[in-house]
Amino acid sequence: MAQVVVTGGAGFVGSFVVDELVAHGHHVRVIDALDPAAHDGPPPYANAAADYLWADLCAAPANPGWFDGADAVSHQAAKVGLGEDFSDVLDYTTANDSATAGLLWALHHQDFRGRLVLASSMVVYGEGRYACTVHGVVRPLPRELTALHAGRFEPPCPHCGRPLEARAVTEEAPTDPRNVYAATKLHQEHLCSAFGREQSTPVTALRYHNVYGPRMPRDTPYAGVASVFRSACEAGRAPQVFEDGAQRRDFVHVRDVAHANVLALTAAEPAAGAFNIASGTPHTVGEMAVALHAAFGDAPRPRVTGRYRLGDVRHVFAAVDRAHEELGFRASVGFDEGMAEFATAVLRRPPANGRRPRRAGGAVPS
Q1: Does pTM top 0.85 for this prediction?
Q2: What whole-number distance in Å separates Cα of residue 210 and Cα of residue 313?
């Protein structure tokens, strides 16, 4: 049995990581700021077998004693989603970059030599992988407002302007974050990698694709698209599908994501580096909206709006070979099964006080 510290363990993914670790007999300590933008207090699903420390990784300084005896650390605490606009930049850099720095500072002063697993994201890639019939694999330029406004959502070849074929992105793809959240997730990877090299500590960065499932936050600007669509169906509104609904993603169930974390934390040998954590079967955003609508039956049909957000990318879905070969991970929850469950799953409601995220303070659990 291992002693594992889970940051953000009261949040969406983190709480499932805690549950699976406990179920396997490990000793779990949770560190969570219970940020008032995400929680009214300790959540009802908090695992009674885990130890909870309601503390802020951005405290000056974080307490190295929080990590006494830890064999491994699962860093889930983060502020997620694209947010509202660039005014969120201070919230994201505080919750993601500064909180990660606080964690690593404490681990350094604790002389931590165990295993560190970071919750990263597919957003670090920017656009996914594309190929041109003439120029082979290419990197599209950021999409332009004039093209988006005209309804031209597919990125063209940057050399000849021909249409591109979207392909599964591998972990070797160059990183190209295209919004604030993405930039902070990549910085988290860089900070953890620097710490790992200096401390001779194995660091595993799990690049989550589009995670959905029970306990997902709802009715906030930071909720994922699955949560937004589910809330609309539940309220009797038509889900509003941006662009033409044909943008491809990989929707992966939270239980599968938690299992990938436990594999990385407890395998006999650590697997350092970056890993796509995804189902391996992409679907369009429109297909996801239709699947949720079907589960509700009498809700209004999804409406394709043509609206767009400049920080969004068109297609990004995963090659999952590395996670299977090195972690032994393979997703087990299928798309239809997962969406049918998600339609009636208990989601995490926003705090009753409706407070906005703090401009300085703790990491908002993901």
Answers
A1: yes
A2: 13
